[in-house]
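dumping the sequnces here before i forget
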Amino acid sequence: MNICLRDLNKTYGHGDAKTHVLQSVSLTIDSGQFVSIVGTSGSGKTTMLNIMGGLDTSFTGSVTIGDHQLEKLKESQLARLRNDKFGFIFQQFHLLDHLTALENITLPEFFNRDPKKNIDPTKRAQTLLDQVGLLHKQDAKPTELSGGQKQRVAIARALYNNPKILFCDEPTGSLDRLTGEQIMELFQSLNKEHNLTLIVVTHEEHVAKMASRIIRLEDGKLISDDMVQHHHEEA
Amino acid sequence: MTPAKLSKLVWQSVNRNRRDFLFSSIGIVIGISTLLFFTSLGAGIKETVLEKVFVVRQIEIEQKKYSGLFGAKVLDDDLVEKLKQVEGVTSVYPKMRLTFPAGAVGGKQLIGNDLRVELVADGIPDTLISKDDIRGNLEFKDWDNIACSSDSDCETGFACGEEKICKGITCDSSADLVTQRQTCGNLGFCDNSNTCAIPIPVVISPQLLEIYNGSIHTALQGSAGSMSKLPKLSESMLIGLGGDAIFGQSYFLGKAASKEKIEKKRMQLVGFSSKAINLGVTMPIGYVKRLNAKFGNKETSKNYHAIVIEASSNDQIAGIAKRVEDMGYALSSKFENAQRASLLILLITLVFNLISVIILAVAAVNIMHTFLMIILERRHEIGLMRALGATRREIMLLILSEASLLGLFGGITGALLGFGTTKAIDAVFASQVQDFPFKPDTLFAFDLWMFLMAIGAALVFCWIGALIPAIRASRTDPARALTGH
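..and the predicted 3d for all of it:
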């Protein structure tokens, strides 16, 4: 699923108070790419991620994901696309404290409209928990998990419906450096093993460099778009 | 989202916020219990007042007391036929009073001595008395006018006469009771003229018994003589009791104007009916017609003193009443009293139900407040659901389903509380309040629709309360909710 942004603009406010969050951003992300979006606070990186993920629909320009032109989709079609093709990971994890790790992972199942995906939610969640190395924590509530463990559960939840694209907003922002790197390594393996498109918003350079492409934003404008050469790849 | 998935989500959410939901439901529980309490109280009072004290769904026509130059319009068979044609009328029952002096002797079986009293009686068609009102073996019908073609059509002790009417055969009144029974059958007896006869079946009004037990009995306890020993009476004590009616002579009014010989006939109480005369006895109309023709005024003996019209429903009553008045006849004061009582009860019930609705409205505001608060707390959760693929409609459905669960809980609990309260009040009423005429066994009347209405009202008020929060939740911007902006 390719992502194509054409002349993307986003503003807040009116008149003199009008703020340009994104200004004429155009770019293409190919299917299976691991992309970091870097920028200072207020540069528009999270806004861009939300627009690409169909969470923010108030923009001008064009956003095409695969065959879908987001600005032309109805609210229900967009919801279905989010459920079916996208996975989301947030800095604050957004796990529901009253549910166990296993129950948190099966949350997307509630909004699954595809009868073909008639899978056993518990088995699917256990497979994913095993994949992120937390099967032994399946009955733990989020309050009983460390930051890194919470993020792994959030990743498992994002992977529940076998998404094509994973949108990650500061996924390491609430983690220490070592745990952050472990999460990024998990992203790398998901990218390689499942050809998953990964878009990671971060302000941390060392995190950004773990992606294969770095897009830089400043004051809502795209200022650079570079491919990253990894040492282990060169070797 | 399938109903099963929705139910699971709703249960998870309600379970997490159970304390908030519990507090919110208190208002609904109180409102619903109050609503059910007052509705059943209104229905109970209506049932007692309008089914026992005044009988609705019926109009009684009387002759106008103040007539014009040409006299009052009489109530006769022609009018009965006319009234049957009026739209909405299901049955017409003429009533005829005895129009000559009569007395009665009886009571020995009950108090040891015979009492002599004036006999006030009227006659009504057999069909006006429900079979359920008859408790004795003797059927409420005109036994002196049984048509026959052969002896086999008649009861034991009777034979088919020349006029094709069953007539009593000869018997020996001096014989013992067993012999008399063998000759005259179980229903009959051998009268003084040595002829088999069947007593006149009579019914009395249950109000008469209520008035006796509630007021007269209490007053008589302080009196001197045998009357002070009169017991409290029940229907079962009185059924089957009899006495002799003396037609053509009373103790106070003297003899009838007619030169006919005084006629003595046995009467037997066979049941209690609201159709019976308030003070006196009611017998099949055939007896009264024949007796009036014999002892009464020849010109007026064929006229009825009242005609009861039964309508198919209460809604028809007003129209029929208007039609009858237009025809130049007066309505009995009973009808007007029933209408007044009905209106008063309706108004009181409405006022109390309005209070219940106000309580429910306040509860709905409280629910709205709670839901708004809960939704604010769950902003991230709702944003996450939207990110995971929930549509606005599904979020709205989720919140309204939570409100439905709250409504069901509040409705059922409120209905149970209301029902329990009525039972407690009934128990106190039965044990602490002294007997009075028409004292009902219960002050309340319940019907399935009341419980359904109570639960329905709880659901509606919960939906009203949750509607604005649900709309607000469905409009949650997932991007803002999840990034904390």
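The longest strand of chain B covers residues 263-272.
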